[in-house]
Design brief:
Length: 308
């Protein structure tokens, strides 16, 4: 090996150490002092959406793959769906019976996989489909953002019910359901939150920061609605008809994505461009650097023990 090659390796190692020291100094240690990583079983698999089943299994979709993944008892599994590769499968949820639901834009469908491995597909009756996030309601209904139909759509007992967005700016992306059965969604290009009441009434709420592009959304145990503002570089909270925004410190357009509420009420989110995850608790925000410098945390979930 040449001296130049040796010097290059030494320099690269030194830079990696400096990066790690800087990350620790700026962001602090991981929440509990430990990160665990699980390498994909296929090098071409790209984990995308994430959801946790009632039994604690962690399910995830994979972009450009004919399979979905599961992490169970510390072991990673690749469950082949038997179909062609899925594209942008960013919608995923698990119902109370352990049935996994996910978006399948390439087949213009919502698909499900039961605990025994049975696959069922529900066509969307559209020639093309662009689908956003997906959530499972307490009554078992599956809600998802359907951009091509300009709708937040409900799938229950095999029947589709579309709630079309009247605002021409629209752009549905994120969706969640609160404890009262209200469905909350983000209208990304419309810069709004959307509420669909159990009787189907729809109400839109403006996000204070113009052009902030709200994306992922979640509801905490008290009924407050939390959302990330992709272009606004903020985390928003909507409660009692009012919005409060929390700017992510020390970053410039961090590319916020994914949001999860931990059992202790902490709000967690990903920073795509900074390879980190953030925590908002008690009005205080803290950033935790991920182990590898090329990490892009697109989706987050919290389990019953508070692990993210």
């Amino acid at each position: 090996m040449s001296k130049n090659r040796i010097y290059s390796l030494i320099a690269a190692a030194a830079m990696a150490v400096l990066a790690a020291v800087y990350a620790y100094w700026r962001y602090g240690p991981p929440p509990n002092g430990e990160f665990s990583e699980y390498a994909m079983l296929e090098k071409t698999d790209i984990p995308t959406a994430l959801a946790i089943a009632p039994n604690g299994s962690v399910w995830f979709t994979m972009d450009s793959a004919n399979a979905i993944g599961r992490l169970r008892d510390g072991k990673l599994e690749r469950v082949v769906t038997g179909k062609r590769n899925n594209v942008e499968p960013i919608g995923l949820g698990v119902d109370a019976n352990g049935v996994v639901w996910y978006t399948d834009a390439l087949d213009q469908a919502i698909a499900s996989m039961s605990p025994d491995g049975k696959l069922v597909s529900f066509p969307l009756d559209t020639p093309i489909a662009r689908l956003g996030r997906l959530a499972v309601a307490p009554d078992g209904a599956v809600w998802f953002a359907e951009s091509t139909a300009y709708s937040i759509t409900r799938l229950k007992d095999g029947k589709l019910t579309r709630h079309e967005i009247k605002n021409v700016r629209g752009g549905p992306y994120g969706v969640t359901v609160d404890g009262k059965g209200n469905v909350w969604a983000t209208l990304q290009s419309g810069n709004q939150l959307l509420k669909i009441a159990p009787d189907g009434a729809m109400t839109e709420y403006e996000v204070p920061t113009r052009g902030s592009s709200p994306t992922d959304i979640a509801v905490d145990q008290e009924g407050s609605v939390w959302f990330v503002e992709f272009r606004g570089n903020k985390v928003g909270r909507f409660a009692d008809g009012n919005s409060t925004e929390f700017e992510v410190p020390g970053t410039n357009w961090a590319g916020l994505s994914g949001i999860a509420i931990a059992p202790d009420g902490s709000v967690w989110f990903g920073l795509l461009r900074h390879h980190a995850i953030g925590r908002l608790r008690g009005g205080q925000m803290k950033i935790f650097q991920l182990p590898r410098p090329d990490a892009r945390p697109y989706t987050l979930a919290a389990d019953k023990a508070g692990n993210i």
